[in-house]
Each structure stands twice: as C-alpha cells, then as structure tokens.
Design brief:
Blueprint (H helix, E strand, L loop, with lengths): L21 H14 L6 H18 L3 H8 L3 H14 L5 E5 L2 E4 H27 L2 H12 L9 H31 L9 H32 L18 H23 L1
Helix pairs in contact: 1-5, 1-9, 2-5, 2-9, 3-5, 4-5, 6-7, 7-8
C-alpha cells in the first residue's frame, strides 16, 4: 500500500511567483478560482488557461509536482464529466446508445465543467507549491486582522491553520513508516477493490491516530516551554511589504478580469 500525500509541500525556487507578496498571491488565487466558475465559452476558457500557463511558467515548478497535488481530485473530475455527458440532454442529439443519448449540450457541459474545475485546482496547487505554509497563514492573519477588534480570535485560528498545514507531510511520512512496519510483521495491506483497500486501511488508523496525538502533545509542551502567547500584539519575523512586482502582478490580474468580462459579454 502506497501512501502519498503532496498537499502542503512547498517547492523551493527563485522565481517571480515565489517572490510575490503572500497576501497578493492569496487574493489573486481566490479571485482567479472564482473567475473560473464564469468560464462558459471558448474565449473565456482560453483566457483562463493562458493565465494559469503563464503563472506556471513563471513559477518554474515542475509540471509533475503541480499535477501530483491535484491527482486525488481527478476521480471527481471524471465522475462530473461523465455525469454531464450522460444526463444533460440539451442541444442536438448526436448519437444514441441504449438508454443514453449524447447531445451537443451534454458534450459541451462535460468539457467545460471538467476544464473549469481543472484550472481551479491547478491554481490552488500552484499557490501551495510557491508559498510556504507559514507565509500563507501570516497572509491570512494580516488580511483578517481588523476582525480582532470585534473579538474574533484571528491569531489563534491562523495558528491552528499553520499547524495543520505543517503536519500534513509529517503525518504522511508517519503513515509510510507504519505501512512498512505492519508489512514487516506480516500484515496483508495490499488488496484490489474499494472494500479490500478499506480493510487494509483499518490497521493503520490506531497507530496513525496515536502518532498524531503524540506530535500534538510534544508541540504543546514545546510551546509552553517557550512561553508562547498568541494575540494581535504578537510581532512577526518577516515583515510583508508590497513591491513593484506586486503592482505589476495586480495589474495583470485586473487586465485578465476585464478581458474575461468582455469575452463573456461579447462572445
């Protein structure tokens, strides 16, 4: 049994995307992902695709690393595509096979829904690869810091988010070690089919849960030993400042939104 989790893993590189302010990258990623939901024709699809290809080229991240992060969601994309292909009956009927009719509307929906969510997932993967987890949580804390005045515990929430992101690769490695240890003891962890795979995962749950509790206890002791106290008055080692490259990236995003709106209206 192979356990591979790549979510939350940062790819170190010296690229224009890596050097952007984390707050801008987070806002730009959210805006782009929301704009993908409005992709409904070929011009808007080409615009959205061109922007993500440009961002991936500037990030200098290997295509395999980007695709590995969205691999678990590919099953969802395939199911969504088949659902639209078989159950959307708008447009002209092209072929009929048994109880299923293939129409132009069904094919169009299958293609656009699949590509729309694929672009959305690619941007999320690129954000995680080019931004360190601590930088993401710091950006979230800075953006939502005004809510501290209303009593919202933003600092505590971002601390939990940071710990969760950092523990994903740690727990992934622990799962790999547990698989190796269980296999060495004669456990049958390989199986074909969903039911066999589920049964193979059961012997991993208890030791993995115990490992997570142990890591949490050690982290709590370390934070207490260092007299850690959160709150809005806590300072940061890295100070975030907008630079000229951030203004250029914001301008490119604004031009993309204008072009996308124009393509949606006049196409």
């Amino acid at each position: 049994m192979a356990v591979r989790i790549s979510i939350g893993r940062y790819y170190s590189a010296d690229s224009p995307i890596h050097r952007l302010d984390p707050r801008l990258k987070l806002i730009a990623a959210i805006i782009y992902m929301a704009s993908c939901l409005f992709v409904s024709n070929v011009p808007t699809l080409l615009l959205a695709g061109a922007l993500i290809v440009l961002a991936m080229a500037l990030a200098r991240a290997p295509l395999g690393r980007v695709l590995s992060q969205i691999k678990p969601a590919m099953y969802f994309l395939v199911i969504t595509s088949l659902f639209n292909l078989f159950f959307v009956h708008t447009g002209t009927v092209l072929a009929t096979i048994g109880p299923f009719s293939f129409t132009t509307g069904g094919i169009s929906s299958a293609v656009f829904y699949t590509l729309r969510f694929l672009l959305l997932l690619l941007m999320g993967s690129l954000l995680m690869l080019t931004t360190q987890p601590m930088a993401i949580t710091d950006a979230v804390e800075r953006l939502f810091s005004p809510l501290e005045r209303l009593g919202v515990p933003v600092s505590q929430a971002t601390l939990i988010l940071s710990i969760a992101l950092r523990f994903v690769p740690v727990l992934s490695q622990d799962a790999q070690n547990i698989v190796v240890a269980q296999t060495a003891r004669g456990a049958q962890l390989e199986g074909k089919g969903a039911l066999s795979y589920t049964r193979a995962c059961v012997p991993l749950l208890v030791p993995l849960f115990a490992s997570a509790v142990r890591h949490a206890d050690n982290l709590g002791r370390a934070m207490d030993a260092r007299c850690y106290t959160g709150g809005p008055e806590r300072t940061h080692y890295h100070v975030m400042r907008f630079a000229r490259r951030d203004a250029v990236a914001a301008a490119v995003l604004a031009l993309y939104l204008v072009a996308l709106a124009a393509a949606s209206v006049f196409a």
